[in-house]
């Protein structure tokens, strides 16, 4: 954690936007996701850090972080996986037919919890946005991102922490 | 006793309620609110003994709800259950009059630790 903070301070001292890879390690993202799964999805629900191709009909949820580092935390998985996650999160309260609204709610809340914990290890002060869900997450700089590939119940999902696109950095705040 | 659970995520409200049961608070009435404004109104209409509120919600945040409640003279015990547990957030919560801040993800033990003093 000390290294993370030091890296952020050095970057700010030069007024250069911090690169996410200097602020956050893949292992930290994995650990945050694992803790979220164990606490929210179920105490036996482990995430295995193994890469596997995402299905074509993927769904994403994301939260934006605005501060000394600005970007988004994006969770992506297949629609079937999102449905299974929703059932697991609802536990005994899961209805026979899970509505799309519940799937978006569940996937958004997982991104919110992972994003909130990622925010906590990044330099602050910063602001966390409300979770959003869709098939097209915000574009980010691929080169300036930390991405972890995981398996949950054998199905692939990814967590990506990505800086905003360069053009958005030039926007003048209102 | 009555507990008001405020979160804009229905799924998260279910998880909080399930965790309350797991922590042994299964004989309390639960009231749900879907954002800070709804929580503010339900504190007035339902008179809960404790509010467990998310922080980041549309319409009115949990912090704004707490500030509005204290501004109106309400002293209802209020705790945050939020995905953000930084020192800065905890300080803001305490300054506004919150009893505690439980960071998501949480466990039943975390609930017991913070709620026993309030609900015992």
Descriptive overview:
Chain A: It comes from Geodermatophilus telluris. Chain A: Keywords: Chemotaxis. Chain A has 174 residues and is of the alpha+beta class. Helices cover 40% and strands 27% of the residues of chain A. In chain A, strands 1, 2, 3, 4, 5, 6 and 7 form a 7-stranded antiparallel β-sheet that branches. In chain A, a hairpin with a 4-residue loop joins strand 2 and strand 3 (71-78). Chain A starts with a helix and ends in a 5-residue tail after the last helix. Residues 1-11 and 167-174 of chain A have low confidence and may be disordered. With 120 residues, chain B is α/β, with parallel strands linked by helices. Chain B has a single domain, classed as Rossmann fold, CATH 3.40.50. Chain B has a 5-stranded parallel β-sheet, sandwiched between helices. In chain B, strand 4 (78-82), helix 4 and strand 5 (100-103) form a beta-alpha-beta unit. The radius of gyration of chain B is 13 Å and the shape is globular. The chains are: A alpha+beta (174), B alpha/beta (120). The interface between A and B is medium-sized, with 28 and 22 residues.
Summarize the helices and strands and which ones pair or pack.
The complex is a heterodimer of chains A (174) and B (120).
Chain A: H1 2-13, H2 20-23, H3 26-41, E1 47-48, E2 58-66, E3 71-78, H4 79-90, H5 100-121, E4 127-128, E5 132-134, E6 140-152, E7 155-164, H6 166-169
Antiparallel strand pairs in A: 1-6, 2-3, 2-4, 2-5, 3-7, 6-7
Helix pairs in contact in A: 3-5, 4-5
Chain B: E1 2-6, H1 10-22, E2 29-33, H2 36-46, E3 50-53, H3 62-71, E4 78-82, H4 87-96, E5 100-103, H5 108-119
Parallel strand pairs in B: 1-2, 1-3, 3-4, 4-5
Helix pairs in contact in B: 2-3
Keywords (chain B): Phosphoprotein
Domain Response regulatory (chain B): 2-119
Pfam family, one (chain B): Response_reg
